Amino acid sequence: MPSARETELLEAAYRYVLTHGLADVSLRPLAAAIGSSTRVLLYLFGSKDGLVRALLARARADELALLADIGAGPGMVARLWEWLAAPAHRPLLTLWLEAYARSLVEPDGPWAGFARATVEDWLEVLKASQPADVRETSAGLVQRTRDLALLRGALLDLLATGEVERVTAALSARD
């Protein structure tokens, strides 16, 4: 169980990386910004990689908690898109994208497994939108994969352009 100080510094570091990104974070400026020292961060998290892993776990927990509020059943893809398109979620989603891409190009670093885990998380969330008799079928998995691909592509487009109306209209026009 983490100490109160570790939790406090992790939360402060998380707020910092939501604004500044994670890929090129340097311990010295991070420590100064959150009122700590590199020595304390290394003591609490073991290494910079340990801190990155803790921050990725924190971001994933935040994302899953927010997704849990989406609910289940019909219309879930539309509700997920509404959540993804909300300006308040942009920092988390930009961090998610950064970590997702890094885990693909640096599969042995602290990013290891992040992309795969997030795909599995989202497929599980999307499973709740399907009728019980479809959830465990190959057709159900194909539909969830398609929905995830559409949402992920739309998110990439939105983050690149900021064009909420155009991307939302495109998603609304699916089948």
From TrEMBL:
InterPro entries: Homeodomain-like_sf (IPR009057), HTH_TetR (IPR001647). The keyword Transferase does not apply. PROSITE patterns: HTH_TETR_2. Residues 26-45 bind DNA. It comes from the Bacteria. Pfam families: TetR_N. Residues 3-63 form the HTH tetR-type domain. Coiled coil: none annotated. Keywords: DNA-binding. This is TetR family transcriptional regulator. It comes from Lentzea miocenica.
